[in-house]
Design goal:
Layout: E1 6-13, E2 22-28, E3 33-38, E4 43-44, E5 55-58, H1 61-65, E6 70-74, H2 80-83, H3 86-93, E7 97-99, H4 101-112, E8 122-124, E9 130-133, E10 136-143, E11 150-156, E12 161-164, H5 182-191, E13 195-199, H6 212-225, E14 230-233, H7 239-251, E15 255-259, H8 261-272, E16 283-284, E17 296-300, H9 310-315, E18 329-332, H10 341-353, E19 357-359, H11 374-384, E20 388-392, H12 396-408, E21 413-414, E22 421-426, E23 431-435, E24 440-444, E25 447-450, H13 454-465, E26 467-474, E27 485-489, H14 501-515, H15 518-521, H16 524-543, E28 548-555
Helix pairs in contact: 4-8, 5-11, 6-7, 14-16
Domain Metallo-beta-lactamase: 21-219
Keywords: Cytoplasm, Exonuclease, Hydrolase, Metal-binding, Nuclease, RNA-binding, Zinc
Protein name: Ribonuclease J
Length: 556
């Protein structure tokens, strides 16, 4: 029997994957628990496997069912993989949201860009502040990361304290914001930490992540040495990098032109929050053509190869305001997220064709990760000294390596889990004690679909093998009124022998109908299924693929 003060943890996204983060903590017994949600993010669709799907979100049906017991949602920071699903999923939850100033301001700007966003109030908590959310006391502990105001969360309960790290690294010289608060984390360790739920993204990488200050110095040197126009692309949310680019432009006597809506939005919010104080005013893309080649720097969206972003349009030479020529320079101040290599490669090839010089982190220190490498993970463990460590925010290899490192560092208990696992943290021995409903939701246009959605499954099949449409008009006596109509989409025109597939399918439809006994011809469902099977079999024989086949039978 569960004790009334049992503390549980369940990831609904972000474990076994990078992205789509959602964690829930529960306090109580199996009949009545209070829940606290941490982050509510997205991951991005893959056109090859999920055609037409832009965003993937965690399935929140469990929290929807527990809506009355959901005390609140706390945001660690404002990256899309941690807060990008709120606009779509918050109406299902309706809970209070807690975040610091920059995250709240960026969310407000994101809502303003939507057509009809729900009114979602956010309670702003100061960096380093604390708030009581039901039976949970949550403290926002500053950590360095690649966006302002990232925080680890110290979640205090009667059972014990959990440190939920969020995304973090150790950077003693961040350009913007506070460094990771080692003093407070050590104090927390002295007070006693029941569990550390920690970022595993770079658990396979030895050493330490370099500082943003080192990147800034490199960018400054490269911009100063450039002869023609310079464009820099980076993650729009990396305000420290934006600041570094602005300082480099200023040192080289160049004006900064902001190109891309996401970049414009972040720059505006960062300036409102004081993170760009002292930097020169940025110009809109309209001003780009007014400056000499050696007096302008374009700060662009599109570092991940997004087809509608500024850099993709520049690479395709179809941006209305910004062009690059032979001798100009593009700096990719970013790393390519796995899965985006082909899209980024296409943009680089387009720029190279235009004679543009490309600089990436392969040749120069123009990007650093916002996540901890192995020595930093060891530091966090030594400061906090948790009784239990649970690796999250990583694929299977990252989680396994983080777990192995934690055991070697002397953590008494280490537990790996999957999305949907219900983990008892305390009191007593921790362990996986059950499952909660979990899964994925797909954003298809303006509609949310579950992973078994017919549209998603059929679209994938259509992308592979096309679709055959057949329309047949029949009398009540089971005779064809006219020739059947055939429309083949996404298929070759002819077979290997040069025969038209339209003619092949037409003959199959007619011969199938004529070969059916009259009672089956009078049954539209039976006739349609017979034609569908025959057409798919014939196409498979002639082509080696089975397209989707849709048969419409009209009785007149």
């Amino acid at each position: 029997m569960a004790r009334p003060d049992e503390l549980t943890f369940a990831p609904l996204g972000g474990v076994g994957e990078i992205g789509m983060n959602l964690s829930i903590y529960g306090l109580g017994n199996r009949h009545q628990r209070s829940f606290l949600a941490v982050d509510l993010g997205v991951s991005f669709g893959d056109e090859e496997h999920l055609p037409g799907i832009d965003l993937i979100m965690p399935d929140v049906r469990f929290l929807e069912k527990e809506r009355n017991n959901l005390m609140g949602l706390v945001l660690t920071h404002a990256h899309e993989d941690h807060f990008g699903a709120i606009i779509d999923l918050w109406p299902k939850l309706g809970c209070k949201i807690y975040a610091t100033q920059f995250s709240a301001a960026l969310f407000e700007a994101k809502c303003a860009a939507e057509r009809n966003p729900p009114k979602i109030p956010i309670t702003v908590i100061p960096s380093g502040g604390r708030v009581d959310i039901g039976p949970f006391n949550v403290e926002f502990i500053p950590v360095a990361h690649s966006i302002p105001e990232s925080h680890a969360l110290a979640i205090k309960t009667d059972v014990g304290t959990v440190l939920h790290t969020g995304d973090w690294k150790i950077d003693p010289t961040p350009i913007i914001g506070l460094p990771t608060d080692e003093r407070r984390l050590r104090e927390l360790g002295d007070e006693g930490v029941l569990a550390l739920v920690g970022d595993s993204t770079n658990a396979v990488r030895d050493g330490r992540s370099p500082s943003e200050t080192e990147v800034a110095a490199t960018i400054k040197k490269l911009v100063k040495a450039a002869k023609g126009r310079v464009a820099v692309t980076t993650f729009a949310s990396n305000v420290a990098r934006v600041r570094a680019v602005a300082d480099a432009a200023n040192a080289a006597d160049r004006e900064v032109v902001v190109v891309g809506r996401a970049m414009e939005r972040v720059v505006q919010v960062a300036r409102e929050c004081g993170y760009l104080d002292g930097s020169h005013k940025f110009r809109s893309a309209d001003y780009y053509g007014h400056f000499p080649a050696d007096k302008v720097l374009a700060l662009c969206t599109g570092s991940q190869g997004e087809p509608r972003a500024a850099l993709a349009r520049i690479a395709n030479d179809d941006h209305p305001q910004v062009t690059l020529n032979r001798g100009d320079t593009v700096i990719f101040s970013s790393r390519t997220i796995p899965g985006n290599e082909k899209a980024v490669g296409g943009i680089i090839n387009g720029l190279v064709t235009q004679g543009v010089e490309i600089i990436t982190d392969r040749e120069h220190l123009v990007h650093v990760s916002g996540h901890p490498r192995r020595d930093e993970l060891r530091d966090m463990i030594s400061w906090v000294r948790p009784q239990l460590l649970i690796p999250v925010h990583g694929e299977a290899l990252h989680l396994a390596e983080h777990a192995k490192l934690a055991r070697a560092a002397g953590v008494p208990k280490v537990l790996t889990c999957r999305n949907g696992d219900l983990v008892k943290l305390g009191p007593g021995d921790p362990g996986i004690v059950g499952e909660v409903p979990s899964g994925r939701l797909y954003k298809d246009g303006t509609i949310l679909e579950d992973s078994k959605s017919r549209a998603v499954v059929e679209r994938r099949r259509m992308g592979f093998a096309g679709c055959a449409f057949v329309a047949v008009a029949m009398t009540a006596q089971g005779e064809m009124v006219d020739d059947p109509e055939v429309d083949l989409v996404g298929m070759p025109e002819k077979n290997a022998a040069g025969e038209l597939f339209d003619d092949i399918v037409f003959d199959v439809v007619v011969s199938t109908i004529e070969g059916l006994p009259r009672p089956r011809r009078r049954d539209p469902d039976a006739l349609g299924e017979s034609v569908r099977r025959a057409v798919r079999a014939a196409l498979n024989e002639q082509w080696g693929k089975k397209p989707i086949c849709v048969v419409h039978v009209l009785t007149v």
